[in-house]
Design brief:
Length: about 250
């Protein structure tokens, strides 16, 4: 246990510039308290001791706001910063030197049995409030943006943001998931696609309406509806100019 606490102290000193002294870290870092308790509950869990590991985990949750199932495997040098609201499921694996901020969930999708929580390889950073769900693997050195919801495997050295999570950087190379826009936001892409579809449908509808009107006015069907599709505005301008020509120019219209 002392060795565990020494490792946790060194980790926090290394990774948090706000940490001033060992005493302060010992007293004021819920991430340290939760992980120290987890080391104990995990050992008892592996020895198949009934109930006690869950009670220790429950006490840790009450004391720190961090819930780590005794079955979760947490590597060396892991740091949970601030911590409140972190939930780590039974079959989750957190690799060495990972950093988790407050509000992170390493959870299941709800219906699976067996391995159902994520595996984070070494050096993964999970931003505040991010949700990583399902039996997925997050490659080493990946950074998951605050507030993201990640549901798929991610290759090492990636940066993931958004809901659902999308890779925006890989091995230092910027990946733009929206060729026509700079927003790394999947919802924005879907909305943009829908708007383009609505534009296309509206101009098709307008063309069909114009064509029907012309057929009703006695123009032959092929002549009225054949040929290249025209934008409604072009057609209106052409019709207006055609009318104006017949009446001697737009200024003569009352
Ligand atoms: C995801 C993260 C690691 C990216 O850092 P980075 O590589 O420096 O990336 P950048 O700041 O250059 O941002 C790259 C793009 O992603 C966007 N982005 C960054 N973080 C984002 C997030 N959490 N959600 C959605 N988009 C995000 C940026 O707006 C930027 O978009 P742009 O290319 O259109 O300008 C970082 O923004 C993050 O969320 N870190 C977690 C920090 C945290 O939880 N802190 C809590 C402290 S208490």
């Amino acid at each position: 246990m002392l060795d565990t606490i020494r490792v946790l102290l060194d980790t926090i000193k290394d990774r948090d510039p706000a940490a001033r002294s060992s005493l302060e870290i010992l007293l004021c870092y819920p991430g340290l308290h939760a992980l120290a308790l987890h080391r104990l509950s995990n050992r008892l869990w592996r020895l198949r001791v009934p109930l006690l590991p869950r009670l220790i985990s429950q006490f840790g949750r009450w004391f720190t706001g961090i819930e780590i199932h005794p079955g979760a495997r947490i590597g060396r040098g892991v740091f949970i910063d601030h911590g409140m609201g972190v939930v780590i499921g039974e079959t989750a694996v957190v690799g060495n030197n990972c950093l988790l901020y407050q509000g992170v969930t390493l959870g299941g999708m709800g219906k699976m049995h067996g391995k159902r929580h994520p595996t984070l390889e070494a050096n993964v950073v999970v931003g505040a409030g991010a949700k990583v769900l399902g039996a997925i693997t997050v490659g080493a050195n990946t950074r998951i943006g605050a507030g993201s919801v990640l549901l798929r495997n991610v290759a090492p050295d990636s940066t993931v943001v958004g809901v659902p999570g999308r890779v925006i950087h890989q091995s230092g190379v910027k990946i733009d998931p929206l060729a026509h826009s700079a927003l790394p936001d999947a919802e924005a892409r879907v909305i943009r696609n829908l708007m383009e579809r609505i534009d296309t449908l509206e101009s098709e509808l307008a063309r069909t309406q114009t064509c029907l009107r012309e057929v009703a006015a006695g123009r032959p069907l092929l002549e009225a509806c054949g040929g290249v599709a025209q934008n409604l505005k072009d057609r209106e301008i052409l019709e207006f100019l055609g009318d104006a020509d017949q009446r001697g120019g737009p200024t003569s219209v009352p």
